[in-house]
Predict the structure.
Amino acid sequence: MDDLFAHAESRQSDPEKRVLELSQQLEHHNTLYYQDAEPEVSDAEYDALMNELKKLEASHPSLAKADSPTQRVGGAPLKDFQQIKHLVPMLSIEDIHELKDEELEALIDPSASKMQNLHDWYQRLTKNLGLDQVALSVEPKIDGVAVSVVYRDGVLDYAVTRGDGATGDDITQNIKTIKSIPLRLPDGAPTLFEVRGEVFMPNEAFAKLNEQRDEAGEPAFVNPRNATAGTLKQLDSKLVATRPLDCIFHSYGQVNDAPYTSTSEFQQTLRDYQLKSSHWFEEVNSVTDLLSSITKLDTDRHHFAYATDGAVIKVSKLATHQELGTTSKHPKWACAYKFLPEQKETLLRQITIQVGRTGVLTPVAELEPVFVSGTTVSRATLHNQDEIDRKDVRIGDTVIIEKAGEIIPAVVKVITAKRPPLSKPFSLFEYVNGECPSCSGPIEQEEGFVAWRCSNFACPAQAVTRIKHFASRKALDIDGLGTAVAEKLVETQTVSTTLELFDLTPESLADLLLDPAKLEGGQSKPRRLGEKKAQLIVDSLNQSKEAPLSKWIYAMGIPQIGESAAREIARLHRSLAEVSQSTILKDLAELPDFEELSVSKRKKENHPRLAQYQIESELGPVAAQHIVAFFNSLAGEHVLEKLEALAINPDSDNYDPEKSAVLSSDSPVAGKTFVITGTLSKPRPSFKKIIESLGGKVSGSISKNTDYLLAGEKAGSKRSKAESLGVSILSEDEFTSLTS
């Protein structure tokens, strides 16, 4: 925390120096966290540094540089992507598909059979070079989306998709949201450095994203690559920033004075420049070693954090690349050896229904255990009824299983030829008789959502997951209240809702018997929770009563309300009581989702200040609808009554009265554009402050989009232009009447 309090004098006297210090510290912490996985500071310490930098840049706009860590998330959504021509054509790599067993033998002994694919490629390579053997490198082929990132004078200039190989989409703002990609290279980097790689979604992050979409009743993504491609096509970089994207670089385009001469040296350059590269990389000197390396990669890749679908093989010496050249489509010095996706056939024994913390009913395929991609698979999510209907999945079917992204078991398709004769289409609603399988409460399908949801707030299945979420580190951070304790509390009917946790006493908790499977050390019989752990939980619960409003909002587990939305809600309200009666949230909930409207249409809505707010924040109509609905429900009423009985009154620790006042205001200034000219009774910044405090904005020039010209004496040409465009002209007295 020393960084947060150091250099206090320099912050005031030399903001430029402090901005540089903060930028360097934040990029250092980004590298440690996103590339090395060895963070030095807590999230709170990082946020404090970032907030200080944001405030300094807001106070001194000239100090806000393109490579500032604050530029990780762009501004307003784009209308469309601009096209950029590649400095060097972005060719694809020739695919060589996986060989059958007899072909693998032939690779070692070419006389065994006539073969194509990898052996032919290698033979062609050595023939063109007039050599018997060629030094090659082998690295994973990442199943992602190809991008090119251009640095000029060490600063990220732009990023572009492959497109047609000659021209691609400008996705600079989206790429800047990926924190593992540096915005500035170290001193000494080439003045022009075009680096190419794959944007992807890590397997576990992809699985978590799909779980969240299942919980929210939204369609799940098919695989990590589709999710990545769809994300990069978003015109709103703020939405992109919420998706868990990463990037690994593997090659280059146009480079001035390249500091490397081989593929291995290029890998080292990537590391030197803090550009993420593959952790798996080997060099080989013969076709036999090449085969061994590929075989090793095929085994190792099942443990990677990202999806792979093959091996990329390159000639090691870069000078040889120039000698070999390219075809119209592919470089002659590289190929991509594609692995066959491992798929297994198995029996779908049953479909069970899981109830999540938000009440969403998720169908799960219970399978005859089968070994796929390194592990035994016995279950696979079917996501929702729409997914079941699309694949026509039925109980008793023989199905094909593979691991999406090498980690997530998925039902690829049904072998209908092996279907039992009396099988029937599966209906989730009919299967559960219209009732929640956990509590027998009613289930409902919200308009516009594919998921079925249990509407009973006291549902036991929801209770366990709600308690776990409620007690999690990002929520109220209740020590000792993990899965084992949560399950036993619900099973023994000690608690049925999260707020009943505050009725617990050390005495009532101490005798709780935990299941043996939940204990460390492999004990074979139940064990008391004990007085010490019971006291720890109760003490932590008491401490959580003082947690800030944002933590409480997030802990409630309201659909669509994540950490960012919870913090934003707390920024606009002083207390939970204000949130429950919020006119801001009610007005925001009535607006169309900004993703479905053009920018111009958004600004013409009945609430222009909120329409603009949607663009600038991570709190939109969908989230607002969910939180308004929650506090209008019996569950929401129960929460407020229980909190009042417990004398718990969560207050905001980040309340912004000015922002709240602007969004609550019905002032005619809100959403309007002003231009100020002429001699007035006070300096222009005074009038600018009044306009912005009421939700308006100030521009420096007159246009057809200007709403008002505030004109003092000697207004000059701006007044004439305003008259010609029909812009309303206000005297200082008229302005005072309008804004008072």
